[in-house]
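Hello again,

I reread your note about wanting to compare the complex against the isolated chains. To keep things tidy I'm splitting this into two emails, and this first one only covers the full assembly. Below are the input lines as submitted, including protein chains and any nucleic acid or small-molecule components. They are followed by the predicted structure of everything together. The single-chain runs will come separately.
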Amino acid sequence: MYGEIITIGNELSSGRTLDLNSWYAAGRLTASGLKVTRITSVGDDHKMVSDALKRAVEASRFVIVTGGLGSTDDDITNEIVAQALNRPLCLDQQMLDQIEDHARVRRIKITSSLEKMAWMPQGSRMLNPEGTACGFSLIEKEVHLYFLPGVPDQMRYLMDKIVLPEILSHYKTLPIMRQRILKLYGLNEPGIAEIFKKIQGKTGNIVFGFYPRFPENHITISLRGQDEPTVTKELDRVEREVRRLVGSYIFAAGDQNMEEVVGHLLLEKNLSLSVAESCTGGLIGHRLTSVPGSSSYFHGGVVVYSNQSKIDLLRVDPRTLETHGAVSEKTVEEMARGVKDRIKTDLGLAVTGIAGPDGGTRQKPVGTVHVGLAAQDKVFSREYRFWGNRVQVKLNSSMMALDWVRRYINGNPFLSGI
Amino acid sequence: MYGEIITIGNELSSGRTLDLNSWYAAGRLTASGLKVTRITSVGDDHKMVSDALKRAVEASRFVIVTGGLGSTDDDITNEIVAQALNRPLCLDQQMLDQIEDHARVRRIKITSSLEKMAWMPQGSRMLNPEGTACGFSLIEKEVHLYFLPGVPDQMRYLMDKIVLPEILSHYKTLPIMRQRILKLYGLNEPGIAEIFKKIQGKTGNIVFGFYPRFPENHITISLRGQDEPTVTKELDRVEREVRRLVGSYIFAAGDQNMEEVVGHLLLEKNLSLSVAESCTGGLIGHRLTSVPGSSSYFHGGVVVYSNQSKIDLLRVDPRTLETHGAVSEKTVEEMARGVKDRIKTDLGLAVTGIAGPDGGTRQKPVGTVHVGLAAQDKVFSREYRFWGNRVQVKLNSSMMALDWVRRYINGNPFLSGI
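Full-complex prediction:
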């Protein structure tokens, strides 16, 4: 059940491209109960690739290799495999046919560099013979090697569709591993450490993980076991315990994100939302509209960066701006009410603040942000002080604003600070 | 001048966390003319870390190691280095003092786990003795090893401030390597391949790189040489040649992004901008306001997701919506004019389209997007068909819209399609 990942390409070893393939493969393998012991990235270099392959074959049960399968000169994986594992390149007729079909459809001339892709190390087997995403596998000293293209979409497709099921089929007696991910917002590291302390001793073989993902904090609850029902029951019990302690901070579980959760709640309660953004500049609207189907609850918003636009678009009282300033409780309340009335929605959400790096004062330093929410005939508002650079302040502000909608609908109190 | 990078942590080998540290380090080293031959990620495992270290010392001139320097139980780098390189742990008094000072200020009790951090492998030297970001270096068989914390901010700080200058100081005779990055939008892969063909034979030792970064395409022009003036002159010559061929597609160079370029142009021409967004949902405003100082040219925007909000906020004619539809040339033109008039800016930029996955028809499939720009008494508009999922259509639409502002100010024609 131990394996490793090798990614090939000068763009990786030179830091020009982020290695998303190894990250994806490792995540998928881990989630399936397998263990990745090592990830190696090397450039398009014969010796380095060859070394990495040989070492992997000696130390692992399975090896995932990505990159270097294409038709250009720097695609050298096939040749290296042939040399390193002493398997001469043979013409794979099925692969050649496929390349020729592909070229015919696209009206591309068959060249020697395209044909090169059909020469594969002896004993290798094409993955996905029908599809256009190509790769191959071979078995060397009982180690299963999978060679996948470096193009992320194709790599992910083959990984999920073919490689992962095949690897898992070799490990029928594998203990299952199940993991829950809980996403928290507003509870800091020491606060989360406290939870772990409180449930210590009640958790058996459960393994906890803590992963800050600014401005969120994720915790994982993992358990290995021989049968699904027992593992599930135990995870349920511990998850309930965690939720009992800090339930209101948990905004999502698994793959969900904040905007999906908020969208789901709005749909469920049949509520419509509009947004007035100052320092976030459109980020809240962008996040909300990243969810398919968001048009049924998100009706629109305004980005009021200047004072004049706050007056013109939201009918904020000029005297309010003069007396209290653009970043104030009073202004954010008028913004929330203004956008709710103008766009005629059930809820009006507003944010105004100082994202920096300039514009801060002693009274209102960079990071001072007001959030407001108008609902029915009430309007709520609160001041926050966020830490960080411009991007971080914007991100935290959008997160807090969306969290307000979530907490309002769930009947939880708004956060007093983070 | 060859080195490698080792990153340590279960969160990396399990695919829970993207390995941004190795990416950053590799990028910085490469940009300085050094070569990274291998990047290895291993979990918090004695044997794997030890193996990786020993191999690196045998094969490289310098090694950057990140992670495992903290105070918790899974921070095991110091111990492993001690064992693997046979250098017993010694108490570093300076480090201990610093930890104690730090604890005093923060009113934390000194524990054995905090003290652990002050026990360092014999012969190691603290990096950054005054700062709070800690790390150490040592020399083993003439190989320089640098151990940095896994926290990205601290790692980057030490990398740029201390490690990189120190490594470079050991290689005074290093041939310099200089690279230009040109960022293109709207020219696809075959189009870019054509440029490379056209300038072939005129480029000497120049190395070209091509990096698709959806929806952008980046090309790099690199050259190694012994003296700065010659390298610069040669790069200048080739860059001029590339710009002569496809200048208008190049929207930025180096680290700049589209929103910075657009902001810079608006500032330079003293023009103000407002934005009316439908399918992009706020993304254009978010991008514009990610640039510090953007409030001096970006005055605000509206996100008009519903038809009613297009009428209410932008005074789009209801008959236009009825006759031509929300996604049409006529609507986007009224949106652009509407936002320009309402927010009283020099330019009004508008986007309306179908981001999907639903809402497409045969006439207007998912990906149909109209961009409009109102300037003085003129208004321009054009239809595009973008390919991809919801996120990609939003991204491409925001990019195209911003590119319109850039092209308008530069006097270049708008793109007819991509």
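For quick reference: Chain A has 15 helices and 17 strands.

B.
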